[in-house]
Design goal:
Helices cover about 30% and strands about 20% of the residues. The chain is built from 16 helices and 31 strands. The strands form 7 sheets. Strands 1, 4, 5, 6, 7, 8, 9, 10 and 11 form a 9-stranded mixed sheet that branches. Strand 30 and strand 31 form a beta hairpin. It is globular. Bound molecules: guanosine-5'-triphosphate (GTP), sulfopyruvate and manganese (II) ion. The site of manganese (II) ion has 3 residues, from loops.
Length: about 600
């Protein structure tokens, strides 16, 4: 039998009594064979990697072309977030809202306690202290995930500031979010992702995948944090963050909320097209932003994460060269295919054709796609060639524009600008998008996804929109709010807009609006560029397509807003009057 790699012993950590007591309580309940306190060291990661490789749970990839990289295959029934099994457990059901699945906290605790009882028998219990945000930022918040998955530990080490430093900060803060996770038996019948915002606690059982299991990400940094943010006067959002350096030497910071698998990572890593020289796009974050009103009346943002859990399919030198280069070493791939050279493969990966599919079977077209549509890479943000040093700024960056967007084959134009903040809240609340493989269920179905937060808001959307309105009212210099859609299709189902790097043309118009230099025409849905306002130097697109991308179909929009009004009805008394007024005014402009 192979000898068990030895995990280096950590110096006895300064453990706050509340953490120590909780670990002991969980240990008594779950009965693990051993407990390991994670330090986040390189040696620890190497030992865990070797251990998983020894068990065949991580497959080393081609050491010449993908050094330090591995492939993980999840259970075939455990490949995406499970929204139908995700619950927000508040004392009052109305606080979770119609936008969440709800369970009474006592019932949820009882259910989860039974699932966790003895669940770690024979396994290692890992204590994973982590910090969301720069370790010395007043806006950062810490958590501790207890998990029995070494894969989760390795991912958390990339995605968060994990280990000793976080533990020290927890000792200083005296508070932390408690996340308890076990992969259990991966039986979807015994899979639940439970949130207890009033207790700052998360319990996740039965999945080892992404947002279900890496509890710092969607569970903490969005669902629990959005609840905390409302109490404390800030916002936790499903947004990328970019720095845009203009040819004139100015830097702008922009946040953008698109639903899962709708282009955040790609926009965050955009490479300017040759036709727009002098621009530079640098990445602060690709998925989550925490936004705080600053003392100067502007909105400041930090990225709570330190890595990317990005969609692999579509990542190519043409679409996203920065990402393509970034993931050529020290990357964990999950559910991609393999080619004959033992290199990871997906649509766009290049290299030889796939020979082994994501489930480890010989690749056969009849079995479906070689790489799972929600296959992902986990990689440190530090490996990003366009990494923005501002990602480590404790005070965050001042935001000039917030962009909402969705994947819509029709209706939503390429870009439009909200009239002001509260109209922008209406625009955000009206985001709708075709579902993607990021969540279990049907793909391509149009659904309402307000602020791209439908799966992630930890409380009632009525209260959430009220909070958005109140944050705006506190800002002397609120960011301008825009809506974009890269996914409009023609009658043949082809995208009308080339997307990717060319999206900079839209960002350029947005920044022109922010600094006052660029024109717009007023339309019933907001301000839009006339075709001449958009820089189309060297852009390969027909005038007809551009016209369609920048058109407003008033009849269809009346239907859209009427449907939004019906969606609003479910929030009853919790719907803020200000949003109702915005909707009435928007409808009147379309009359
Ligand atoms: P999550 O990590 O799930 O939150 O996704 P995300 O919003 O970061 O999406 P990502 O950037 O990974 O893009 C998802 C898919 O959309 C990929 O397959 C991309 O290639 C594709 N995509 C991204 N941007 C564009 C675009 O501008 N146009 C088109 N047509 N596709 C795009
Ligand atoms: C998303 O689905 O929006 C993701 C991936 O970013 S996961 O971490 O699985 O939530
Ligand atoms: Mn996401």
């Amino acid at each position: 039998m192979a000898t068990q790699p030895v995990i280096p012993a950590a110096a006895a950590p300064q453990v706050p009594a509340s953490l120590d007591a909780w670990v002991n309580e969980v240990r008594a309940l779950t009965a693990p064979a051993r407990v390991h306190w994670c330090t986040g060291s390189d040696a620890e990661a190497a030992a865990l990697t070797a251990e998983l490789a020894g068990k065949g749970e991580l497959l080393p990839l081609n050491a010449q072309t993908f050094p330090g990289s591995h492939l993980a295959r999840s259970a075939p029934n455990d490949v995406a977030r499970v929204e139908h099994l995700t619950f927000v457990c508040t004392q009052n059901e109305q606080d979770a809202g119609p936008n969440n699945h709800w369970m009474a906290p006592a019932a949820a605790h009882q259910k989860m306690t039974e699932l966790f009882r003895g669940a770690m028998r024979g396994r290692t219990l890992y204590v994973v202290p982590y910090c969301m945000g720069p370790i010395d930022s007043p806006y950062a918040r810490c958590g501790v995930e207890i998990t029995d998955s070494a894969y989760v530990v390795l991912n958390m080490r990339i995605m968060t500031r994990m280990g000793s430093q976080a533990l020290e900060r927890i000792a200083r803060d005296g508070t932390f979010v408690r996340g308890l996770h076990s992969t259990g038996d991966l039986n979807p019948e015994r899979r639940f992702i439970m949130h207890f915002p009033e207790e700052l606690a998360i319990m996740s059982f039965g999945s080892g995948y992404g947002g279900n299991a890496l509890l710092g990400k969607k569970c903490h940094a969005l669902r629990i944090a959005s609840w905390q943010a409302r109490k404390e006067g800030w916002l936790a959002e499903h947004m990328l963050l970019v720095a845009l350096d203009s040819p004139e030497g100015k830097t702008f910071y922009v946040a953008a909320a698109f639903p899962s698998a709708c282009g955040k990572t790609n926009l965050a890593m955009l490479i300017p097209p040759a036709a727009l020289p002098g621009w530079r796009v640098r990445t602060i974050g690709d998925d989550i932003a925490w936004l705080h009103p600053g003392p100067d009346g502007r909105l400041y943002a930090i990225n709570p994460e330190s890595g990317y859990f990005g969609v692999a399919p579509g990542t190519s030198p043409k679409s996203n060269k920065n990402a393509y280069d970034m993931i050529r070493h020290d990357t964990i791939f999950t559910n991609v295919a393999l080619n004959a050279s033992n290199e990871p493969w997906w649509d766009g990966a290049g290299g030889g054709p796939p020979v082994t599919d994501w489930q480890g079977r010989p690749y056969l077209a009849a079995n479906g796609p070689a790489a799972h549509p929600n296959s992902r890479f986990t990689v440190s943000a530090r490996q990003n060639p366009s990494y923005a040093h501002e990602a480590d700024a404790p005070a965050g960056v001042p935001i000039s524009a917030i962009i909402f967007g969705g994947r819509r084959r029709s209706l939503a134009p390429l870009v439009y600008e909200a009239r002001d903040w509260s109209h922008g809240v209406l625009v955000g609340s009206g985001v709708a998008s075709e579902t993607t493989a990021a969540a279990a269920g049907q793909v391509g179905v149009l659904r309402r996804d307000p602020m791209a937060m439908k799966p992630f808001a930890g409380y009632n959307f009525g209260d959430y929109w009220r909070h958005w309105l109140s944050v705006g009212a506190r800002l002397k210099h609120p960011p301008r709010i825009f809506h974009v859609n890269w996914f409009r299709q023609d009658a043949d189902g082809k995208f009308l807009w080339p997307g990717f790097g060319e999206n900079l043309r839209v960002l350029k118009w947005i920044l022109g609006r922010v600094s006052g230099g660029l024109g717009a025409r007023e339309t019933p849905i907001g301000f839009m560029p006339a075709a001449a306002d958009l820089d189309s130097t060297g852009l390969a697109i027909t005038p007809g397509a551009l016209e369609e991308l920048l058109s407003v179909d008033a009849t269809a929009w009346r239907g859209e807003l009427a449907s939004l009004g019906r969606d609003f009805e479910q929030y009853g008394e919790r719907l803020p009057a200000g949003l109702k007024t915005e909707l009435e005014q928007a409808l009147a402009r379309l009359a």
